[in-house]
Amino acid sequence: MKTAFISHDDCSHHDMGYGHPESPARLGAILNQLQDTRLMQDLEFVRAESVDPSAVRRVHPATYIQQLDLLQPEKGRIMCDGDTLMMKDTMRAVKLAAGAAVQAVDMVLSGQNSNAFCATRPPGHHAERNKTMGFCFYNNIAIAAKHALEFHGLERVAIIDFDVHQGNGTVDIFENDPRVLVCSSFQHPCYPYSHHMSYAENIINTPLAAGAQGVHFRANVESDWLNKLQNHRPQLLLISAGFDAHKDDPLGELELVEDDYRWVTRMIMDVAKTYARGRVVSCLEGGYNLKALASSVEAHIQTLSGY
Ligand SMILES: [Zn+2]
95: domain range? Predict the structure, then answer.
């Protein structure tokens, strides 16, 4: 079974302006990187489809969804919050990114693919139930998780988030929901400065100090997550795959390298093999040094596809 690679050109039309780190060039860099590798023949390329509104309503209130549609300007840009801007092509990309996450769950749960990677933007893990934040509008990974639980009828899933920033939106949505174990490593203190103090039993926070390297990341992840994942026995593993904890990333100060992404991907796949018939769905979050992003995504997908 091939790893599904789900994307759409229109995800690159959402453009928050010159110099914004969450830029359209990010997806281009990933695709360029894959062009020259044998991974190309080992992936199943799938065109993302716009998300069904009912899947979004499982996570975000109808009023919030409506407000975002109404906010979208016909020309120019408007600020939704301090970091997140909207222009005429934004909501199309937002709906494709969430749609890809739902498609990935469908493909993996149907047994068509053992795992899937969504190369989409905007990212999602900072979006709370009714708040855009940190370049995010819809919480893609949360929409995927709820689709797996409430449409496909799974009882337990796990979300692994190794972005350098804590996935405050995902915590906001799933805090105290025993069906969803959220394991999150992040630089602390760092943006978004909220939700890292969650004491909910299903939220496993792994804060890392600026300058932490792969050896610290691996040791902390292993001791904080493995037991919890084994006790939870997730039937599907979802990854908020942010690559901004890379040593060359301009937004974070952690020191991970490609091999650390390979390691954590393999660890997640091992858990999935034991409890979830190998089923893994991964969605792109951050990663802002184009070169580091592209090579880290390559390492991640290579591992997913069994290299
Ligand atoms: Zn991030």
Answer: 3-304
